[in-house]
Amino acid sequence: MTETLVQEPGTEPVKPSRPSGEPLLVVDELTKHFPVRSGMFGKTGLVRAVDGVSFSVQPGETLGLVGESGCGKTTTGRMLVRLLEPTSGKITFEGKDISHAKGAGLRQLRQDMQIIFQDPYASLNPRHTVGRIVAMPLQVNGINPPGGVKKRVQELLELVGLNPEHYNRYPHEFSGGQRQRIGVARALALKPKIIVADEPVSALDVSIQAQVINLLRGLQRDLDLAFVFIAHDLAVVRHFCQRIGVMYLGKLVEIGDRNSIYERPAHPYTRALLSAVPDVTKMGASGRIRLEGDVPTPLNPPSGCRFRTRCWKAQEICATQEPPLTIKPNGTTAACHFPEEGAIK
Amino acid sequence: MTAPASAPNSPTTTDKDPYLRVNDLRVQFPTEDGVVKAVDGVSFSVERGKTLGIVGESGSGKSVTSLTIMGLHNTKRARISGEILVGGRNVVGMTEEQTRRLRGRDMAMIFQDPLSALHPYYKVGAQIAEAYKVHHPNASKAEAKKRAVDMLGRVGIPQPARRADSYPHEFSGGMRQRAMIAMALVNDPDLLIADEPTTALDVTVQAQILDLLEDLQREFNSAIIMITHDLGVVAQVADEVLVMYGGRAVEFGTVEQVMRRPQHPYTWGLLASVPSLHGDSDADLVPIKGNPPSLINLPTGCAFHPRCRYAGRNGDRSFTEVPELHQVLERGHLVACHLSEADRTKFYAEDIAPSAGVAQ
Amino acid sequence: MVRFITRRVLVGVATIIAISIIVFGLFFAVPSSPAKVMCGKNCDPASIAAVETRLGLREPIVEQYTSFMKGVFVGRTYAPGTAFERQCDAPCLGYSFRNDEPVTAILKRTVPVTISIVVGAAILWLLIGVSLGMISALRRGTLFDKIAIGISLTGASMQVFFFGLILLYGLVYATGWLDFPSYTPFTENPLKWAQGLILPWVTLGFLNSAIYARLSRAQMLETLSEDYVRTARAKGLPLGRVYTKHALRAAITPIVTIAGLDIGASLGGTFITETIFGLRGLGKETVEAVNFLNLPIVVATVLLAAVFIVVANLIVDLLYAVIDPRVRLS
Ligand SMILES: Nc1ncnc2c1ncn2[C@@H]1O[C@H](COP(=O)(O)OP(=O)(O)OP(=O)(O)O)[C@@H](O)[C@H]1O
Ligand SMILES: Nc1ncnc2c1ncn2[C@@H]1O[C@H](COP(=O)(O)OP(=O)(O)O)[C@@H](O)[C@H]1O
Ligand code: SF4
Ligand code: SF4
Ligand SMILES: [Mg+2]
Ligand SMILES: [Mg+2]
């Protein structure tokens, strides 16, 4: 990926988040196919959950992955942290090929890469105290921080805005937002370089969601963490990510820096997605792009461009030739034969 | 809160009689831990052809309010008082048989998760036909079926005659919600309650469903209550907005009033918390501190005071006295807050208006 | 659908073959020779050899197994070319080591007993257990519910032999209200058939009713809290229709599954019930055969039990597909 981040003049100092050096994480043609049997009597098929996705993340950079349900965001995220084995493709972390890392290599990787899950209720063991939950990664990896485990855990709790005295409490004593903070503390325990966050705020109420977004933003800035931030809420992603990738039916259809993606996206799908968001600042539904129909099944995706069944600009070539990801005049990298130009009205 | 002070009697609505009128509704559930005051003195009204948006965080009493209007609570388990006038008839205190006759015919409801709300074992068409038949006992099976197919076509299901014979699991999420809407509208109800109808759907599908509801409302001229926690959805579809907190109404007004000139600190907090597609993306969001209250043990005075930046700006009334809804600024704009008019205007101008979330 | 049935039948056949091999193998691992057992105390090697020849026990085990399978499907000839030669027509399951009676004849006598016990009891426990459970779910928290829960808790914690013996003592020995259970074929005299089996039915039926009542109550309560039940009410359906058409159908599905498997398993033999009430059913026959190392009967009864279970599984799967469209081929 070669797009450049448009740095607005006069904003914060340039972070070490841009191309200067080696990318932290490079994903190349990552693919995951699940063999499935539909129903009890069905024949077997192949769910093309993720189909040749490529992107890279610089140290300290935040990349957002957005798209509708089932487009492969979670599957991608799980492959990155190696909770799922990729069907094909390559994941490179700090120059090392980790696509099929095992044993010691995987353990080292688990220290550098952490994941935060969507459901703050299901992801914490209800029978363990908060202290034990947060200390778990340290213990599993046999790490004894200076000052002891307990001190480190209390520091972590404080870092995520929880009272260190909550050390001996159980998860059910906490609200959804607080539980998500516990999950964040656990993820930070090993001082990772990158965190994959899969819909970390989707299950939370708006007021609590804002608290957690602010927390993550602060941590990202202070600890210079890289993030792969998965979400379906475009407004949330806009507030958190410097660069955004848009996925549709297992494919990355557009990727670019925040301003280009939100102000002048090239891919028709990105435009449709943005215009569908009911925004608090916008009254009524005027000027909206109406997409017809539903997302097709990943068991049998359309030929050529996968968006063509719902695209208002589709031509014959869209059915026969898959559009490659190329840099478009607007500055983003998009996969479309007839990219949009100019700013969104 | 005294009922007559609120919207129903405001001059804007005198020429048309509202179809639904809720007066001082209270719903309590006795539980082992104590009494849950799920709804605590709420009043509002909705006219035919208009949409009332009810917003609030989870647990603020939105669903309980809607289920109470539909008479779906177990009267043995829930203590209900107040008045719910549906086309002039008070639903509170009606027998099960009396409310049953209204349900599905005069008032209908669609739910958040259309997959679990449809019966997995029956064909979609049959489920809709059943809803028709129960209120049209003289209709033949074929008539009911035809009506079901008609409705499926009206809500935009392609090849409705064929898809009527599908089971819910064979539909996509958006089609299921369309089917739910077809079922709710099959008897031309005058009141439609939609409880988070698009929360489980993707944005592009959500947009389709909201458009559909708007089109159908124009066609059927029904009153709609749109319950949601998404302020964007409210801004898009509502004519009037009711903001709920801790089982009470804290702000009521037209969508312009509530979304563009909000006057309650909680509404301010909500709007400042919501990330937007416009405005400064580098600015931090301004969350409301703390967590929503427990409805068993509501804070004294204004239930919002532990989270409110402005609590205490008016002596200790916020801590001791429950604020009543009263009119501010404009006619029909009601707010339950002790702040003085001057203070409110000042805080709004200084702290709120410049921030991202408020509609421009 | 056809493919599904074929696949399941094939899997079932494979299961039964595997079981038959295991049972065959196990009994040959037992050191003492059945021929010795049969021939009595003072037995010279020559007569043992004769018995072994007659029963075909001198052949290698693999051959014995294949001849057995051949016998089941096409019939076989025992000890061909010797003085003991005899023809056994399909389905041939061999002869009892004890009294040379054909195993098929034994099965013909014992299987109807077990089927009669199980079918009668199952009707009882399904009718009583399921309706009790459903009614208490609909009246949760009422006195009826509490009593029903109490009874089913008691029933579920009781053992068959304990409850059976109490009944036997109370209704037969102490009061003489009922005759001691006996088996009369249904075709001979239906009334006597039912009279003779009433005690085992009540015993088995009551205990299983307790279990099924708890199960159905839990299922029904879960179903009543489903969103689609709320939808049915929101449509304006009368409560009766909501309960029967919408809730009951969904609640009953898992019960059908469990009942099918339970009945299938019981058909393989209800040893304790049969023993308490002195009925010669499949269960009693099997246990006795095991004690006597009566290999042909053990193999036959174990295989038959396996067939019952496999068939019950198949029926349950098919029923499931009929009831729940989600598992049907789309
Ligand atoms: N273990 C699995 N077996 C079969 N299919 C799977 C499996 N896991 C995921 N899928 C399918 O792969 C596709 C992508 O799933 P994924 O969970 O990555 O979507 P997502 O973008 O995270 O969606 P959401 O927004 O709903 O979380 C979906 O069609 C999903 O049904
Ligand atoms: N049947 C019930 N028994 C006890 N408490 C209930 C019951 N139904 C709802 N509640 C409580 O009432 C409050 C309001 O719930 P609800 O109206 O569902 O909130 P929401 O605004 O998210 O729709 C919650 O605290 C909820 O736990
Ligand atoms: S390639 Fe064709 S179908 Fe695909 S998005 Fe572009 S115009 Fe639409
Ligand atoms: S009454 Fe007081 S605490 Fe409540 S919203 Fe107004 S200022 Fe805040
Ligand atoms: Mg996901
Ligand atoms: Mg709700």
From TrEMBL, chain A:
GO terms for biological process: peptide transport; transmembrane transport. SUPFAM superfamilies: P-loop containing nucleoside triphosphate hydrolases. It comes from the Bacteria. Keywords: ATP-binding, Nucleotide-binding, Transport. Residues 1-22 are annotated as: Disordered. One of its GO terms (molecular function) is ATP hydrolysis activity. The keyword ATP-binding applies. PROSITE patterns: ABC_TRANSPORTER_1, ABC_TRANSPORTER_2. InterPro entries: AAA+_ATPase (IPR003593), ABC_transp_ATP-bind (IPR050319), ABC_transporter-like_ATP-bd (IPR003439), ABC_transporter-like_CS (IPR017871), Oligopep_ABC_C (IPR013563), P-loop_NTPase (IPR027417). Residues 25-274 form the ABC transporter domain. Belongs to the ABC transporter superfamily. This is Peptide/nickel transport system ATP-binding protein.
UniProtKB/TrEMBL annotation, chain B:
It is a peripheral membrane protein. The keyword Nucleotide-binding applies. Pfam families: ABC_tran (PF00005), oligo_HPY (PF08352). One of its GO terms (molecular function) is ATP hydrolysis activity. Its main location: membrane. It is found in: Cell membrane. GO terms for cellular component: plasma membrane. Keywords: ATP-binding, Cell membrane, Membrane, Nucleotide-binding, Transport. The keyword Zinc does not apply. Residues 20-271 form the ABC transporter domain. InterPro entries: AAA+_ATPase, ABC_Ni/Peptide_Import, ABC_transporter-like_ATP-bd, ABC_transporter-like_CS, Oligopep_ABC_C, P-loop_NTPase. One of its GO terms (biological process) is peptide transport. PANTHER family: DIPEPTIDE TRANSPORT ATP-BINDING PROTEIN DPPD, OLIGOPEPTIDE TRANSPORT ATP-BINDING PROTEIN APPD. Belongs to the ABC transporter superfamily. This is Peptide/nickel transport system ATP-binding protein. It comes from Asanoa hainanensis.
UniProtKB/TrEMBL annotation, chain C:
Residues 111-320 form the ABC transmembrane type-1 domain. Its main location: membrane. CDD domains: TM_PBP2. The lineage of its organism: Bacteria, Bacillati, Actinomycetota, Actinomycetes, Micromonosporales. Keywords: Cell membrane, Membrane, Transmembrane, Transmembrane helix, Transport. Belongs to the binding-protein-dependent transport system permease family. One of its GO terms (biological process) is transmembrane transport. It is a multi-pass membrane protein. This is Peptide/nickel transport system permease protein. It is found in: Cell membrane. SUPFAM superfamilies: MetI-like. InterPro entries: BPD_transp_1_N, MetI-like, MetI-like_sf. The chain crosses the membrane at residues 9-30, 113-135, 147-173, 193-213, 251-272, 292-323.
